[in-house]
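REVIEWER CHECKLIST
Item 1: Sequence provided? yes
Item 2: Single chain? yes
Item 3: Sequence as submitted:
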Amino acid sequence: QVQLVESGGGLVEFGGSLRLSCTASGFTLDNYDIGWFRRAPGRERGGVSCINSVDGNTYYLDPVKGRFTISRDNAKNTVYLQMNSLKPEDTAVYYCAAGPCRPTFVDYYVPHEYDFWGHGTQVTVSS
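Item 4: Structure as written out by the authors:
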C-alpha cells in the first residue's frame, strides 16, 4: 500500500519536545517534496512546514519558526519534524503528505496537489 505513516505524537508538557516521523510505505521519498500539516480542534487543516526535494529549502509557519525543524533522511525513507518549546496552541493532529513545497505553502495550499496522506498523529501539549 502506497502511503505515508506519521508517528511520534503524544502528550507533553508546556516547553517539552517531540519528534514526529513521516515514513513512506510502498514508494521512495527521495524525489518528493513533503509537507507537515496540522488540524487543531475547531480549525481547518493548515500547513506547518515543508521541505523541498530539489533544493532542500524549508518553510515554516511563523508561530513555529525557531521552535520546529523539518529534515529528511532518504536512507530511512523518512521526513522528521522536530518540535521544541511546545505550547498548548501546538495541540493538533499532525499529518504529512507529498506535494509542492513553495514559499507560499504555509499561507495556503491546494489540497488536490498533495498525495499519500497519512492518518495523522495526535500532539497534545498541556499547560
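Item 5: Key structural point noted by reviewer: The chain has a mean pLDDT of 95.
Item 6: Recommendation: ____
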